[in-house]
Amino acid sequence: VTPRPAETRRPRLVTLTTDLGWAYAAQMKAVLYRSLPPGTVVDLAHDLPPHAIAEAAFVLKHMASGFPAGTVHVAIIDPGVGSSRAPIAIDCRDGSRLVGPDNGVLGPLAASLGIRGAVRLDPGRLGARRRPSVTFDGRDLFAPAAARLAGGAAPGTLGSALTPKPLALPRPARKADGASGQLVHIDRFGNLITNVPTPWMPAGRRRATVTLSRMAARTARLVRTYADLAPEELGVLGSSFGLLEIALREASAGERLGANVGDRVLLRWLPPGARGSGKR
Amino acid sequence: VTPRPAETRRPRLVTLTTDLGWAYAAQMKAVLYRSLPPGTVVDLAHDLPPHAIAEAAFVLKHMASGFPAGTVHVAIIDPGVGSSRAPIAIDCRDGSRLVGPDNGVLGPLAASLGIRGAVRLDPGRLGARRRPSVTFDGRDLFAPAAARLAGGAAPGTLGSALTPKPLALPRPARKADGASGQLVHIDRFGNLITNVPTPWMPAGRRRATVTLSRMAARTARLVRTYADLAPEELGVLGSSFGLLEIALREASAGERLGANVGDRVLLRWLPPGARGSGKR
Amino acid sequence: VTPRPAETRRPRLVTLTTDLGWAYAAQMKAVLYRSLPPGTVVDLAHDLPPHAIAEAAFVLKHMASGFPAGTVHVAIIDPGVGSSRAPIAIDCRDGSRLVGPDNGVLGPLAASLGIRGAVRLDPGRLGARRRPSVTFDGRDLFAPAAARLAGGAAPGTLGSALTPKPLALPRPARKADGASGQLVHIDRFGNLITNVPTPWMPAGRRRATVTLSRMAARTARLVRTYADLAPEELGVLGSSFGLLEIALREASAGERLGANVGDRVLLRWLPPGARGSGKR
Question: Which subunits have 3 or more CB–CB pairs within 8 Å of chain A?
Fold first, then answer.
């Protein structure tokens, strides 16, 4: 992908990802549309779990990384709004720009797109003369910055260089007969997305025991897709994220198992032919 | 309406209707915006009840049929993703195209727009070289197909002809003193939408008994609009779908009556002057 | 801001604010896109609390007032649909137009933009020949009116002059050692937005007692932003609305306190050094 020149004429798309709900996000759209043409703002999600930085970072990476090079991605999951955490913009290798608080939420997306540089946003350079409050930087600081970037401004004109804070993400571990990791996301269906790569599931095995934090081990079937499961049967399969997921057919594994993002996950592949030792 | 030529220059609108939630839908938008201009993707709903094909088919028909001729409508309610159910595109008489799984969800909309032909989508012809997973055809197969169709590709270039599977919908029955049918949709207010046509409600009657699956009969007033009801009073009125609905004024009939989509409905018109025999 | 001429060529943005949920709102978008170009319809919120006119009026004012002059704002919170309440369009001083029921929901936004005139919408002049129902004016009346206004029609061509009904909003009262008011909005985080202006919070005070309808007094800390609070600590701070809010750090004050929009609020500033008399 060839990066677009910094001062391109054609406005870029601006995507919005927040835990703010639609009403606050609408105030950001108002700011953006004061200078951008119709259709340039794309709502990704405004219903992310409140204040959950690591899960939002995971979801954002998967939502945003497929957008065209040059897109401006704004992410407002910002429990530290108004504190000393920096407001930042990241200049990515493909010409995309990322805008949000420097709390790690932009980290995985930035890493996947490649970082060319980053700045700490300077309110004074954004024409944010009078800050009406310190509790909604999404509207008062990040939306004006995104509008400028979408209009073609170079990130360097909006603040001074900074190195974004990294987000420490848990790493999965491969074991002789299984894998350990964490739940990194629970989707709308209640499917439990782990951080264990799908290729770690061995060919030729048909069952595993699944152990989540604070819960007894359960037997699950290793399957290709949801429809391979019987009703109420627990399964492990390759999710669309390239990571293993734990699912029930047409029911919420999250609710049934009382699982939460951040729970530890232990998967143990059972020998071929085994019927499992955990409870169903 | 004159159908637009298959290879039109101006990109068409693409609407998205899913039970996936916003985060997965965002991944579909990323794919679409890789080739389509700003503003062409319209979110209809991403919060449909999970896996509820018949209700989604009903809602989709009413949401999408008013869009301009030539629009591409994508519907992802797909509990059988990755199984042998076919991925399809339907070519409609007005030039609209429908994209989704061949599980009936597109059926009522297709019937109302008129079917000119349909194809089974061929991943090989969609440039979907490497399928990253088999659990998210919305992103990996249907969004690329919709992008091609919106760009002007003829459906026949994306796969081979097929006859879509019909969706068996329940039919209401007219009776001497009433009607029987089913609940086909419960809206955000908890209003219960039946499949009984509004014109079946007789003029000159003022009350009916309403019996839902597993519930005792209740008396309801036949009214024109919600504001005709007293607080807490149950009513039957003509919904905006052209079908009778059962409602409480500014309260959820769905919650109060414990009703579910698919419940049987029996309506019995009471003689003029009757006060009703069911409990209030 | 210079108002745009009434018969401008370039279509205006149309924003949608409803309590209808996404599925009904989609039917309004279908109507709008039959005549407007891609990207002109902007979803603000479709998940407002059902039938809550005063709260919607408050939220609408804050969402919509930042949009460019000339935008058409449609608000459908309409428990009286089909009754004698008038359907209206308001012509604002900056060229913006507001469309919705005459129940007060448009009042605060109209007041903040300045009213130049208003009309009662005439279905006959909107080409709404056959009203399919009386329960969804958003689709059958307001969306066609918005499409005409966005296309450049002067409001006076769509109906006859009327004076919109005012919305009686509660007023806060300043007291020697505090303030009284009401909860006007609860946001997605459960923060309680009052109608007490932020500048009424005295400098040099550090604590207050907070009393809500039907609840015992509690002590809260007066802070600048959420991050100044300890976990579980109750705080009072300046919200992004320019009004005081009552919040817990990363938790829902609404759920913990069982608060509702409309609850009375009494704030009493404690003397410097006081530790508070209410329970924590």
Answer: B, C
Structural contact between residues A180 and A248, judged by C-beta atoms closer than 8 angstroms: no
Residue pair C46/A71 in contact (Cβ under 8 Å)? The answer is no
Q: Which residues pair with A91 in a beta bridge?
A: A97, A117
The structure tokens listed for B183 are: 């609940």
Question: Residue C200 in contact with residue C268, Cβ under 8 Å?
Answer: no
**Nearest residue to B112 (alpha-carbon basis) of B152, B149, B66, B170:** B66
Question: Is C65 close to A30, i.e. CB distance below 8 A?
Answer: yes
Helix (H) or strand (E) holding B100: strand B97-101
CA distance B198 to B219: 18
Out of A38, A46, A237, the one facing B39 most closely (by C-beta) is: A38
Which residues lie below 8 Å from residue A165, measured CB to CB, with a gap of 6+?
Answer: A102, A103, A104, A107
Backbone angles phi, psi at C47, to 5 degrees: -115, 30
For residue range B72-128, what is the model confidence (pLDDT) as tens digits? 999 999 999 999 999 999 999 999 999 999 999 999 999 999 999 999 999 999 876
Shortest Cα–Cα distance, B160 to chain C (Å): 30
Find the chain C residues whose C-beta atoms sit closer than 8 A to any C-beta of B: 19-24, 26-27, 29-31, 33-34, 37-41, 43, 50-51, 79-83, 132-136, 139-140
CA C74 to chain centre: 12
Which stretches of chain B score pLDDT less than 70?
A: 1-10, 128-132, 274-280
pLDDT band at C9 (very low <50, low <70, confident <90, very high): low
CA C271 to chain centre: 35
Q: How far is CA B180 from CA B274, B280, C89, C109, C268, in A?
A: 21, 21, 41, 46, 60
What is d(CA A128, CA A137) in angstroms, rounded to the nearest whole number? 11
Q: Chain A residues within 8 A (CB-CB) of chain B?
A: 11, 13, 15, 17, 37-40, 42-48, 59, 62-68, 71, 187-189, 198, 224-228, 237-242, 245, 249-250
Cα-atom radius of gyration of chain B, to the nearest Å?
21
Neighbours of C100 (CB within 10 A): 31
Identity at B100, one-letter amino acid code = G
Tokens 């039917």 map to which residue? C27
Q: Do C38 and A34 touch (CB under 8 A)?
A: no
Contact A42 B34 (CB under 8 A): no
- Reported residue count of chain C is 280
Residue-by-residue DSSP string for C178-215: EEEEEEEEE-TT--EEEEEEGGGSPTT--EEEEEETTS
CB pairs under 8 A between A and C: 104
The predicted-structure confidence for A6-42, as pLDDT tens digits, reads as follows: 444 567 999 999 999 999 999 999 999 999 999 999 9
| Alpha-carbon torsion, ordered A101, A102, A105, A108, to 10 deg | 140
Q: Which chain C positions have a beta carbon within 8 Å of B187's beta carbon?
A: 21, 23-24
User: Bridge-partner residues for B17, per DSSP?
Assistant: B45, B75
β pairing state of A173-175 and A178-186: antiparallel
pLDDT tens for residues C41-50?
999 999 999 9
- Separation of alpha carbons C48 and C159, rounded Å: 28
3-state secondary structure chain A: CCCCCCCCCCCCCEEEEECCCHHHHHHHHHHHHCCCCCCCEEEEECCCCCCCHHHHHHHHHHHHCCCCCCCEEEEECCCCCCCCCCEEEEEECCCCEEEEECCCCCHHHHHHHCEEEEEEECHHHHCCCCCCCCCCHHHHHHHHHHHHHHCCCCHHHCEEECCCCCCCCCCCEEECCEEEEEEEEECCCCCEEEEEEHHHCCCCCCEEEEEECCCCCEEEEECCCHHHCCCCCEEEEECCCCEEEEEECCECHHHHHCCCCCCEEEEEECCCCCCCCCEC
In terms of CA atoms, which chain B residue is nearest residue C51?
A: B250
